[in-house]
């Protein structure tokens, strides 16, 4: 099955499958069934079966999956063996929160550097290097950066977006609360936290 | 139609409808059709028709919608006339970024106060009051807070969640990267930024 069509919910469970399978260790347990995994993780068996079939096809009857193969197929899904390099523009509060967050590498994305035009932002302590904007395009080209994260305000978001596209970036994750224009071959994903909150609020009124 | 079943995508377009309808002003344009709105906002007519029918039923043939009624129905959807009060626990980088964000009130949610156990966080400059945790329960009860936002780390998220539930909060928006246990009558919405990024990365490999 085409790995790229894996739905978000399945993707979200893959780290749990991986953690479990690594814990039981492929050497000790060379084969494992969807049933065993479902029980151990307290998930529905149908769900686990469906998830695994998307990643690895059906398990062998009465034998299950080859544990080692399954681990590496799950890792492939999350891009473990092919890290995607990202840059972030806008090292304000939200940007810094994202830089601080450790979880992206579990999903095959590494933020290689952050960029900002503000001197205070450049001077801030950060695990990730914060560079001035004039170095942006060279950095992206030299490092083959594929993904750009926009955490600047609405006013400069389109400008940053254009700069990303001109620097060869193929996918953009936008946190600015505005519509951005990108060429057809560039993927754009808008993250609207306000909308998530609105959705929760709306579910509340149902209760 | 039951307003609470409005899908997230429709919800996301409502602020644009509202902005437009207020601009044209109900006094000058007492009736308006879905077609006119669709053209003005460069949206598909079918989509606009569907969105509005969820909020206001079908427009009158050849007349359209009563503009003023439509505006107030759209406002109701976003909770304009019934602000939901929220509190946030964890005024670190992500928490501060959310506090700084101005967009939530457009969706009927007001963050009334933030709480933190850290002195530095308490001393930080913020438009929203940052209070010590020992005042949490009293504040929630006195102000009828209905919604709690968790932006603390994984280690203390469940404790914060339990405290929210004990203080009468009925819906929780969780940013901590862990599963939380809540009673059946409490709504829980997990926000996984890592998962959103993983989804984008996964879409990239399709291109």
Evaluate the radius of gyration of chain A: 20 Å
| CATH topology category name of the largest domain in chain A | Rossmann fold
- How many helices of chain A? The count is 9
pLDDT average of chain A, as an integer?
88
Quaternary structure state of the chains depicted: homodimer
Determine the CATH superfamily of the largest domain in chain A.
Answer: NAD(P)-binding Rossmann-like Domain
SSE order of chain A in H/E notation? Answer: HEHHEHEHEHEHEHEEH
Overall CATH architecture of the largest domain in chain A: 3-Layer(aba) Sandwich
Report on the structure:
The structure is a homodimer of 207-residue chains. With 207 residues, chain A is of the alpha/beta class. Chain A folds into two domains: 3-77, Arc Repressor Mutant, subunit A (Orthogonal Bundle); 84-197, NAD(P)-binding Rossmann-like Domain (Rossmann fold, 3-Layer(aba) Sandwich), CATH 3.40.50. Chain A has helices at residues 8-24, 34-41, 45-56, 67-77, 93-100, 119-123, 136-143, 154-166, 193-204, and strands at 31-32, 65-66, 84-89, 109-116, 130-132, 147-150, 171-174, 187-190. Chain A has a six-stranded parallel β-sheet. In chain A, strands 1-2 form a two-stranded antiparallel ribbon. In chain A, strand 6, helix 8 and strand 7 (171-174) form a beta-alpha-beta unit. In chain A, helix 1 packs antiparallel against helix 4 and helix 2 (34-41) packs across helix 3 (45-56). The longest helix of chain A is centred in the N-terminal third of the chain and has 17 residues, at 8-24. Chain A is elongated and about 60 Å long. Chains A and B meet through helix 1, helix 5 and helix 9 of A and helix 1, helix 5 and helix 9 of B.
